[in-house]
Design a protein that fits this description.
The chain has 353 residues and is of the alpha+beta class. 40% of the residues lie in helices and 31% in strands. The strands form three sheets. Strands 3-2-1-4-5 form a five-stranded antiparallel beta sheet. The radius of gyration is 29 Å and the shape is elongated. The two termini are 36 Å apart.
Length: 353
């Protein structure tokens, strides 16, 4: 928060951007992953019994991108002289296309029904009306769900925590040691040099638009019926991977651009930078003055809006080793970038170009 106690500009947009990610990840964890683990753990204590199949079907559902399978069954079993009927087939209900679990189980049950063979089931001894045919955990399906939990939930919750803390890092001790912050994106003079702060959420509208472009590309890859256009089975997947890969890369890049911050202090003693992501330290540099050979402006990225091309620049410090370190970024227009470069060079005495 700023001195007036108000949230930084773009904070609410970052929160809005994060909410869907957090909802997907947390929802998958609470409504699917944890119930699956809970059911699997308690089913390890259930008792075996033989059941007679009354019905068994392997159902398939074909979409534009794949075919999902779903096994349904109805069976009758007896416990302590009492007859029960059950319909639960596996721990996780519904269909999927992760591995061949559904197909193999469906074919086995359909064959047993045709042959009139009993099938083993697992029965809850405390509540015999509760039973299941297959109590396998299915690590592949669990891992698939955890991708959503970790990637979407981690990104979403992390961004929400960052916004709630007003952009402050979680480690308070590290925060006290951090390079002092100047006015966002502008120079603040100190003895022998300058310091700058490029906070998370800068140019948030542009980066949010980039994220939406990524989502559109991913949606095109997933939803367009490429099978109708392709001449082989490989063609559709190439299109899906192409559009999905580009969209995913753009979305990840937009998230990084929106959520990272940079603090810089450069003076006659050297250069210190701190790069953070959602307030957590990602990368830092400390370079003595003799290692810095020059400062220069380089083109960062280009954006075209309404047929208007806008170039964003950054300022790099070139070291004797050949390494380059960013000291300023997201500078809109060459004129502003050159003006900032001249100010830094004048305050520090480093060569500029």
């Amino acid at each position: 928060m700023d001195k007036a106690g108000k949230k930084k500009p773009g904070g609410w947009v970052m929160a809005l951007f994060a909410l869907p990610f957090a909802a997907v990840g947390v929802g998958m964890l609470l409504l699917s992953v944890l119930p699956t683990l809970y059911d699997w753990s308690r089913m390890q204590f259930w008792q075996p019994a033989n059941a007679t199949l009354l019905a068994a079907n392997l159902n398939s559902s074909r979409s534009s991108k794949s075919t999902s399978y779903h096994v349904t069954a109805r069976y009758r079993y007896t416990v302590a002289g009492q007859v029960y009927e059950g319909e639960r087939v596996a721990i996780s209900g519904g269909g999927d296309n992760v591995g061949d679990f559904q197909e193999a189980l469906g074919e086995r049950l359909e064959q047993a029904l045709r042959d009139g063979q009993p099938v083993p089931v697992w029965v809850n001894p405390s509540h015999p009306a509760e039973a299941v045919i297959d109590r396998s955990l299915r690590p592949g399906l669990l891992a698939f769900k955890m991708v959503f939990v970790v990637m979407f939930g981690g990104v979403g919750v992390g961004m929400l925590v960052f916004v709630a803390r007003g952009g402050k890092p979680l480690n308070k001790q590290a925060q006290r040691k951090t390079t002092a912050a100047g006015t966002p994106g502008k120079l603040e003079k100190i003895p022998g040099g300058v310091q700058m702060h490029f906070p998370a959420g800068r140019w948030w509208g542009l980066k949010l638009a980039m994220g939406l472009v990524g989502v559109v590309f991913m949606a095109v890859g997933a939803l367009v019926p490429w099978e109708q256009e392709a001449q082989s089975d490989i063609g559709p997947w190439l299109f899906r991977l192409g559009f999905g890969g580009v969209g995913g890369a753009v979305l990840v890049g937009a998230f990084y651009a929106l959520a990272n911050s940079l603090r810089v202090q450069i003076d006659r003693d050297g250069l210190r930078t701190e790069r953070r992501l959602l307030g957590l330290m990602l990368q830092w540099h400390q370079v003595p003055a003799p290692e810095i050979t020059r400062l220069r402006v380089v083109e960062g990225y280009t954006v075209e809006i309404n047929n208007r091309r806008e170039i964003y620049y950054r300022i790099e410090a070139e070291l004797r080793s050949g390494k380059k370190i960013t000291v300023a970024q997201d500078l809109k227009g060459r004129q502003d970038a050159d003006r900032m470069l001249a100010s830094i060079g004048s305050a520090t005495g480093y060569p500029i170009r």
